[in-house]
């Protein structure tokens, strides 16, 4: 009997999870995605293991949909052809460059503080091939329409808190040429960094499922499954290189 009850409990949880995924899913916009124009711009979504981000071409920061925040960032990072954006709770994000630095107390405060906590946007300039810069990260390429990219830029613009009409940098980012900027919106367990990333690609017309997007792996799988996002081949790890070199 205990085994049967346990099986029933797991089955019930599975049903609830499926219902949550279906009921909270956000549809795509077929007028925006997939793109129908020739040579559409490409964005990338990256999974850093615990956190996701969106990588845009520099030109997207000065085109339609961009405002003072993105245009200021475009000028500051003008030497880099691609820019990565990520969002998270101010203290936890800045204190957690890797999973090894995970602080449970900061994580719980970020997730469960009533009313949420302040967010920050990390901006990173990328000057190399993405696979060279992030050899082992999970990355998918997503061609988007120009109209979809404009809407994505407008949504991204809205996530910067402005002072005197300009974005406010609050210190260096976690890696490479990067800065944290004061963000708009509140971080909580119902609005984590990967939900933020999903919201950006949804603005470009792609369907997303926030429940799946709670974890970056779920977001990437959903983009590959329903939107046909193309994974970039990963670089072989040192142990894999060694194995490949054996006869």
Characterization of the model:
- The chain has 247 residues and is an alpha+beta fold.
- The protein has one domain.
- Helices cover 38% and strands 23% of the residues.
- It contains nine helices and ten strands.
- It has helices at residues 2-24, 68-76, 90-95, 104-112, 130-133, 146-157, 193-203, 216-227, 238-245; strands at 42-47, 52-57, 82-89, 117-126, 138-143, 162-163, 166-167, 169-172, 178-187, 230-231.
- An eight-stranded antiparallel beta sheet has the order 8-9-4-3-2-1-5-10.
- A hairpin with a 4-residue loop joins strand 1 (42-47) and strand 2.
- Helix 6 (146-157) packs antiparallel against helix 7.
- Residues 8-23 and 240-247 have low confidence and may be disordered.
Describe the structure using short key phrases:
alpha+beta; two-stranded antiparallel sheet; 10 strands; globular; disordered C terminus
What is the topology?
Elements: H1 2-24, E1 42-47, E2 52-57, H2 68-76, E3 82-89, H3 90-95, H4 104-112, E4 117-126, H5 130-133, E5 138-143, H6 146-157, E6 162-163, E7 166-167, E8 169-172, E9 178-187, H7 193-203, H8 216-227, E10 230-231, H9 238-245
Antiparallel strand pairs: 1-2, 1-5, 2-3, 3-4, 4-9, 5-10, 6-7, 8-9
Structural class: alpha+beta
Strand content: 15-25%
Q: How many strands, what sense, and barrel or not for the largest sheet?
A: 8 strands, antiparallel
Total domain modules: 1
- N to C succession of SSEs: HEEHEHHEHEHEEEEHHEH
Radius of gyration, CA atoms, in whole angstroms: 19 Å
Number of helices: 9
Shape: globular
Poorly predicted regions: 8-23, 240-247
Q: Terminal Cα separation, in Å?
A: 54 Å
Strand order of the largest sheet: 8-9-4-3-2-1-5-10
Mean pLDDT: 84
Tally of strands: 10
Helix content: 25-40%
């Amino acid at each position: 009997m205990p085994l049967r009850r346990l099986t029933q409990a797991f089955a019930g949880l599975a049903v609830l999870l499926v219902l949550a995924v279906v009921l909270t899913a956000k549809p795509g916009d077929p007028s925006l995605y997939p793109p129908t124009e020739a040579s559409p711009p490409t964005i990338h979504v990256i999974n850093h293991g615990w956190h996701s981000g969106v990588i845009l071409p520099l030109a997207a920061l000065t085109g339609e949909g961009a405002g003072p925040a993105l245009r200021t960032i475009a000028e500051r990072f003008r030497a880099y052809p691609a820019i990565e954006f990520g969002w998270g709770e101010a203290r936890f994000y800045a204190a957690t460059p890797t999973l090894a630095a995970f602080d449970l107390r900061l994580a719980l405060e970020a997730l469960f503080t009533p009313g949420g906590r302040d967010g920050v946007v990390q901006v990173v300039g990328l000057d190399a091939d993405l696979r060279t810069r992030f050899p082992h990260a999970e990355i998918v390429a997503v061609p988007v329409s120009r109209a979809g990219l404009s809407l994505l830029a407008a949504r991204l613009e809205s996530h910067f808190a402005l002072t005197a009409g300009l974005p406010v940098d609050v210190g260096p980012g976690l890696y490479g040429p990067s800065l944290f900027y004061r963000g708009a919106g509140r971080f909580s367990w119902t609005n984590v960094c990967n939900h933020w990333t999903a919201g950006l690609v949804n603005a470009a017309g792609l369907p997303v499922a926030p429940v799946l997007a709670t974890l970056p792996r779920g977001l990437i799988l959903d983009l590959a499954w329903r939107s046909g996002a193309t994974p970039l081949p990963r670089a072989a790890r040192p142990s894999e290189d060694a194995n490949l070199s054996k006869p």
